[in-house]
Amino acid sequence: MSEDPHTLLPRRLADAYVDELVELDPITGTYLGVPGAAGRLPDFSPEGQEAVADLARRTLGRLPAAEALPGADSDAERRCARLLRERLTAELAVHEAGEPLRAVSNLSSPAHSVRESFTLVPTDTEEDWAAVARQLRAVPEALAGYRASLAEGLARSLPAGPRQVATVLGQFGEWAGGSRGGWFSEFAAGGPQALRAELDAAAREATGAVVALRDWMRDTYAPTVEGAPDIVGRERYARWVRHWNGTDLDLDDAYAYGWSEFHRLHAEMRTEAEKILPGANPWEALRHLETEGEAVEGVEEVRAWLQSLMDEAIGALDGTHFELAERVKRVESMIAPPGGAAAPYYTSPSLDFARPGRTWLPTQGRTRFPVYDLVSTWYHEGVPGHHLQLAQWVHVAEDLSRYQTTVGMVSANAEGWALYAERLMDELGFLFDAERRLGYLDCQMMRAVRVIIDIGMHLELPIPDDSPFRPGERWTPALAQEFFARHSGRPGDFVESELVRYLGMPGQAIGYKLGERAWLRGREAARRAHGAAFDAKRWHMAGLSLGSLGLDDLVAELSAL
Question: One Pfam family, short name please (predicted)?
Fold first, then answer.
């Protein structure tokens, strides 16, 4: 750090933290597009985790002095200081409870971060591919560090859930399999001929490391954790809720809210289903759309179709409901690599926008893609959802701080905006037929169901008397999966993948609905304050330019815009 950390205002202190974090965690640097980050991977061992925690402690120790400096009382500095304190405190609570020592998840784990980092590295030049080769050769040490952390978790009686372990073992098998020698070999095959031998050898080393980790987890880890609970209980759940949502929720109130949304959405879904298949319930109508509704045939065709959907949305929304910078308008539709979770996802642009924001569709072996299931989802993942918010954050990063617009992200803020974006497109009339609107309501219903079952099963809450499903019983993962399957238009493998995701990332899945509620409350309060002068376009852009906020602060800040 070139400047005395004791003389930095909160925003500068936060960015100094990002600089030091990138040194410890090159994958974060890859996400941000930091030069030199590609070619390296983090130390996922207990010692590496402790180094990141020490950085958080040092930064928190410097924060009071930063807040006492002249100029630290501005709104910009105040917001950043609050976020930095809340985020680092939440992350340290998770670390000190030993949660990273049992980080097994079908979506978010060190192993998944390693693989995903290769989808984000530059690959334009021979020099870029030389860095890819170095990064491939770093995979064995990175995965060995991850294995050391899992082993330490076993030694400290901190097991991961058996269901997550079984699922991840299957994913590792898929990463290592295939006709071309595994996922890493397939990725390396895109490199230049001049580096062919080096890339192929490095890819074989990376694949060998995945096989070694899989075999250890199968032969040592899985038998040891057999019989451990998949659910986390109230104490661990509350800690994760703070981490993912930036607030200490009233969990009983949130559970009740999930049920109220379930009943509201169920009634709306019945109305739309009647238009599609008279006499059918919503899920019968959705199954009908799987085979008889509008669909896109072909993997490349669906990628191009999703690209056109986002391009059309940008054209319709820019200048009317949003005011978008030119570089924010660029977003790419991608097909996700195999062997991951079933849910689509988004990756942010690099800080210089050299790598654009990207949406990713897991095909799960399919070649036919019903439109009802895609439109609202791509309003969520792409435009006006994750892409408009997270790309706008990058666009204003120099005005706020890189911390507020990148690594300080609060999941519930971002997921809440994306779900609000789906609702906004419905309000604006973009879901113009019963198929698309039923698909939107099904997406909303999934998020309400997430609140119910994520809280319900991890806390083993009773199912209320007015439930259409097993009233009076207490939630278990098996009941949660059955309930989800009965109240979703998605196939069984998607439901299974989602449930394993909730078990491995407790408290994350509730942030969609609860974050949307925060955005709606903030908009309604701003409307009341401004009356007829309320300008939705101005409010949207101001809200998207706030940077990251936890749910503790989001409603108040949005209300004041």
Answer: DUF885
pLDDT (tens digit per residue) in 107-165:
999 999 999 999 999 999 999 999 999 999 999 999 999 999 999 999 999 999 999 99
pTM above 0.85, yes or no: yes
Report how far residue 200's alpha carbon sits from residue 215's, in angstroms, rounded to the nearest whole number.
22
Q: Is 331 helix (H, G, I), strand (E, B) or coil?
A: strand
Q: What is the pLDDT of residues 66-98, one digit of tens each?
A: 999 999 999 999 999 999 999 999 999 999 999
How many angstroms separate the CA atoms of 484 and 498, rounded? Answer: 9
Given the DSSP bridges, would you call strands 331-335 and 295-297 parallel, antiparallel or unpaired? unpaired
Of the chain, the end-to-end C-alpha distance in Å amounts to 35
Instruction: Identify residue 397 by its one-letter amino acid code.
Output: A
Q: Is 361 exposed, middle or buried (0-12, 13-18, 19+ CB in 10 A)?
A: buried
E-only strand ranges, 378-470: none
Structure token pair of residue 301: 């065709």
For the CA atoms of 555, 556, 558, 561, the dihedral, rounded to the nearest 10 degrees, stands at 160
Helix (H) or strand (E) holding 168: helix 162-176
Domain segments of the chain as ranges: 5-230, 240-512
Cα–Cα distances (Å) from 68 to 7, 59, 399, 402, in that order, read 10, 15, 21, 21
